[in-house]
Description:
Layout: E1 3-9, H1 15-23, E2 40-44, E3 47-51, H2 63-80, E4 84-92, H3 96-105, H4 111-121, E5 126-131, H5 139-149, E6 163-165, H6 174-183
Parallel strand pairs: 1-3, 1-4, 4-5, 5-6
Antiparallel strand pairs: 2-3
Amino acid sequence: MTGEIVLIGRSNVGKSTLFRHLTGKKVRVGRRPGVTIGPARVRVGNVVYVDMPGYGYMRGADKKVQEGTKDFIVRRFEDGAEEILLVIQVIDAASFAEIADRWERRGEVPQEVELFEFLTELGLDVIVAANKMDKVADPDATLDEIGERLGMLPPWRQWRDRIAPISAKAGEIEPLKKIIRSKI
Length: 184
């Protein structure tokens, strides 16, 4: 039986770069948000990796396109949950707290938190790939805060089966690969 491992996250967090490292397949990546506009799919053994378009800000895209992308993502997970083995929620560890604070100051739930809660409510197995760790000054404090905002009590190290500190651009993704291997 074939199952899917789906990569999801905010625009420009490194999903496509990570996808390339996990699958060996080159996909278009860019410096600006919104380069991935539709899902990319690559079969590796009995698993199909899916690189979803990013949600949130997309330079040059109007609000309607951004909302349409968000609706597509929600429907994709609701309609295809049975085929999904794992979801890899890629976040930018270097800017996560700053972005979450901005949302919370406006009285809103941060998109990363909302997505994580949505996916877990669907009963999906979610791994948080904390990307861009090479840009983080205090890795343990950063990962503790990420885990805590997602509802996991610190220290983050007790969640090594759910939180993977990585740097996709540098090719440092072994913590994530280890979790994937243990789950499939």
